[in-house]
Model the fold of this input.
Amino acid sequence: MKRILCLFAIGALAGAAPAFAQETLTIGFTASQTGKLNNDSTAQLRGFELWRDDVNAAGGIKAGGKSYKIKFVSYDDESQGTRVQQLYTRLITQDKAQFLFSPYSSGLVATAAIISEQYGKVMLCIGGAEEKTYKLGNKYLFQLYTGAGQYLAGALDLLKQKNPKAKIAFVYEDDPFSKAVAQATRELAKQDGFTVALEESYSSGTTDFGPIINKVVSSGADALLGGGHYADGSTLARQLHDQKAGLKWVTLLVAPDSPNFATLGDAAVGVSVPSQWEPQVTYKPDFGPTPAEFTKHFTERFKIAPGYHAAGGYAGGLVLQHAIEKAGSIDPQKVAEELNKMNVTTLFGQTKFATDPKEHGLQIAHKMVVAQWQRKDGKLVKEVVWPNEAKTADALY
Amino acid sequence: MIGILASVIDGVLVGAVYGLAAMGLTLIWGVMNVINLSHGAIIVLGMFVVYFLTSATGASAYLGVPLVLALGFAAGVVIYWISVNRVIGQPILMSLLATFSLNMVIIGLGTAAWTTSPYNVPVSLPGISVRGYTFTGTHIMAALIAVVIAAALYLFLRYTRPGKAIRAVASNRDAAELNGIPTRQVLSMAFGLGVALACVSGALIATLFPFTVLSGGSYQLKSFVVTVLGGLGNPAGALMGGIALGVVEGLATPFTPVSWTPIIEFGLFVITLIAFPRGIFAFSRA
Done:
């Protein structure tokens, strides 16, 4: 008797399941809830969550006469590539994720991309600026961020204006993204006639920058470009300040973009960051909230102002949503075709993906700004200082 | 030239603190033949104690040092009776497993309580600037405290009754027991001391560098290198080993990329193990 009841129960569930499944769209991803990428990845995750809640509150994504509520399945990747590999396989095979968001950081995106391509899943890559991943003939990757090669181009332009003969020290984290940025920028700097006074990479877990800073001082550099992610970048900035390294210009990747960077106090002043996005930008989106609306909404919800990781997360969701709605279907092939055709402006700026098979999915329209921490009426604020047409304050040099 | 000198001085200052951390590890090994694999996690506990102390009371991190020592000692004694006492005298694998599992427990609880975000203990002391190179006050202070504590430990082991008891148990436990020394209590005291040293070195490192719950691993590795340089089981050698490591790092960094430092460090580790298996500073055995 019990057995028969069980069979009935299973039958009822099996009958009911497809009706629910049709109305739910599962998006899978991993976030670095622990480990060194925690700070940046959490901001990205908040962007995803805000987007999901906004979409679901508005009744879900509408495509082909149906509306799909968004469901996230996500795991902690511990900031480690090996976890990403296991977990993306799990997301696809066990959790049946229909679309994927990327993990945070170029290294992890490269790992996740192998899995997503293997299974033919569309993956929106938010925190993966390094170009190499998109030049391997992948078909279902779509990059939101400006590529690593362009990251410090703005900072160099600005430096050229301030001191065309500056001696530059490149000090960067030994990870795929930072290395790609530093190498591309070093070539640009040489073309621009700057002297490269020092080039040093450091391992990801570095906390003692004393030896490197001594070398920077010895090299007589005027400017330092480099950094990596939040943990190392904020430490480097603090120790540069403590050891009075005598630099006139410091641009670090990623770290100074985080609102938490202000906790460095005086050590933050003058430090600049190439940024994918700042709350002050004035893009006029084709759909979705404006940058100002997003900033207000995000700040109300999380009690902290959004940086570019958060805005990128939200925009990743918007772009996927737009493609699904345009395609009128959740068929990955059709959605990928829509993404290939896309040329839109969201709160994050312009988005257009390369369709050349050699670099398919590479972002080719999005532009970056340079922001700098400055003291204004005794408070630390991040001002846009480059490009000239978008700046909110003059650069401190 | 001044650049190299600056680099060496910096190396010595930081090396003294690493030496202090290694003293904790080597003391425990020397007395009870236990390799404490929870050493790194315990260093991190010291970091968090000083972090919460300064953020709650606003007091100077250095005032917290005696408290960290006392708490570390108490925690060490408790840990000894819970997880180490029953594996003393057992095969080495048992104590490795016991302390490694303790390591996992501390890291797991720490991650749950404090996440793995980086923490900072804000300390600012005026530094000394010479021709563009700055030696920060925090580095100088941390090195001074490390040397004072190391000297105090040396005097304690050399001249006090409990210190002598620890040395007696270390050199021959059976003979010590026959002479009426309560060896279990002495072992627990030695373990407490080792843990207190690890905690206090963590507290000092926290004033220099940011840290996370997971920071312990790298300091534990450094402690092993220093311990091997100084001779396993030799607390006085450990401090010298730390300083020697600092000098080597300081000499190497101006000429090689900084990312090579670990290669040099561990190369030295292997060479020392082959050429001086009892440690370079074995002659100074306390």
In short: Chain B has one domain: 2-122+138-284. DSSP finds eleven helices and two strands in chain B. Chain B touches chain A through 38 residues (CB under 8 Å).
